[in-house]
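fyi for ur records
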Amino acid sequence: MREQGRHMSLSDNKHLSAILLAAGESRRMGTVNKLTLPIAGTPLLRRTAETLARSGLAELVVVVGYEQEVTRELLQGIPARIVYNEAYSEGQMTSVYQGLAALNEPCKGVMICLSDQFLLDMDDIGTIARGFARCPTSIMVPVYKGQRGNPVVLAYQHREAILADRRNLGCKRLIEKNPDLVTALEMPNDHVLIDLDTPEAYANAERLLFEAARAPAAITMMG
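which gave:
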């Protein structure tokens, strides 16, 4: 499935909620908590949370865990429900459970968002929201040139099943066991593939941001 032109307002994103996973220990980054690293002058976690908070979603839940005092400080002033995952060291799916359990607002779908996808912007969120609004299945995965990315979107109807079978049914397993429920949404850029897991990736971030900033300017000049 390929996304069509942009024609919806932020209010049309209200059918989606987002769970932002911010509980991990970022071990591959070394001794630094990667969520505190500045990206264009803004800490990584805050940058991602602000993008989601400005995107007109039904609800934003942020799941914290490792160094929760630090991450809560980074989120000050952002309209989001913050929940603590005491089992954060047991894996990412424990944070997904906490986020799903904390949802309060009615919605049709839930985006499972990673905190380190620093290139994701409001246009990308809008593309995903529009895609899910016309998605023929209950799970949608954004892809770029055939490569799967994030955030995955689950129909709200899957919430109870995942919460009821915490040990055996995670998002990845749900997708693997039910390929007929999954639709791939072809994205116009690679933002859904890029994250910050290592010092090398962080060193490369400024170049990626520079290129992303140049692209709209180049299109404007050509037009």
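The mean pLDDT is 88. thats all i got for now
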